[in-house]
Amino acid sequence: MTKLLIDIDVILDFFFQREPFADSSAQILSLCESKKIKGYITPVIVSNVYYLLRQTAKHEKVIEKLKLLLSITEILAIDKAIVLHALNSEFKDFEDALQNYTAELNNEIEILITRNIKDYKNSHLAIMTPDNFLQMRNTDN
């Protein structure tokens, strides 16, 4: 089963129905829900999604949405080694570095799904947009 880290932009595209990205984000999450792929997120993503959703919805509604997200994804742990890798990396954005090394050091994640491919040019993972991943998946089937 394909294991991938889903970056925050993909999650936010889904929750905020940002066009033209919402459909492919929904398809990625649907694949997680149907257990055709195994999707992972990080605690940083959960925290940031809470903060951003909270700007437009009540606490209870945001918690409900996060629980739904967590019912179809797994959370990767972030420890000191990951933080140190991120701090010492060539990444321009610390949050992206945290996401990357959380996935890389997990040794099971194959792909990081994001719309910000250029932000992950220093990654050793396969970096794909939701659309690219879905096209590749359709080609393989």
What does this structure look like?
The chain is an alpha/beta fold and 141 residues long. The chain has a single domain, classed as 5'-nuclease (Rossmann fold, 3-Layer(aba) Sandwich), CATH 3.40.50.1010. It is 54% helix and 13% strand. The protein has helices spanning 8-15, 22-33, 43-54, 59-72, 80-87, 94-104, 130-140, and strands spanning 2-6, 37-41, 73-75, 111-113, 126-128. α1 (8-15) crosses α2, α1 runs parallel beside α3 and α3 (43-54) packs antiparallel against α4. The radius of gyration is 15 Å and the shape is globular.
- So what's the overall shape? globular
| Order of secondary-structure elements | EHHEHHEHHEEH
Alpha-carbon distance between the two ends: 13 Å
Uncertain spans: none
In short:
With 141 residues, this protein is of the alpha/beta class.
Could you list some keywords that capture this structure?
5 strands, 141 residues, 54% helix, Rossmann fold, globular, alpha/beta, single chain, 7 helices
Structural topology:
Layout: E1 2-6, H1 8-15, H2 22-33, E2 37-41, H3 43-54, H4 59-72, E3 73-75, H5 80-87, H6 94-104, E4 111-113, E5 126-128, H7 130-140
Parallel strand pairs: 1-2, 1-4, 2-3, 4-5
